[in-house]
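Protein in question kept in full:
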Amino acid sequence: MSGLRCVDGSYLTVTPIACRDSVGTPYEITLELHRDGTPYGSVGERCGWLLTRLARGVDEARRGRGEARQWSDPDDRFPEEEPDSELFSFRYRTRSGLVEGGELRCQLRTIPQWQPGVGEWRLTRRAYVEAWGATGVGMRAVLTSAELSVFVRGLVTEAEGCLEGRDLTRNRGQGAGTGESR
């Protein structure tokens, strides 16, 4: 299970759980959320391929690929070109389409910080990972791109384990989320 220390001191644990087809074969994941060990929500049905793409995108951005190279500090480099954009938003939806049971989202924010010795502003970027439980109580963790990479890579590794070794990168270059079909 992957986890994050939140700004309020609480600990968010995120555990991938296998989604199974009608014959019991695991094919994707859902994320179970816990706050300080207490069940908090269930989100992101079939989100494994998106997490895999995000992990790859964060790693590429940290290496300075694309628009991310404009940020000198690798910790400020994220895959989105927009300054304040959303990297993911996972909710739990019932079969009837109602949203309930929690939310997990990650939004980029650009933060100006005054540097007194230099006498100028420095812009940094951070990922704000926010979780909302079924009760409506929220938690937030603020991450550098390195911390986000570790968190998401951990989720992908765990997901592949709970899928009995199935590789979530099966969609690389074709299939779901790429605009191409098999």
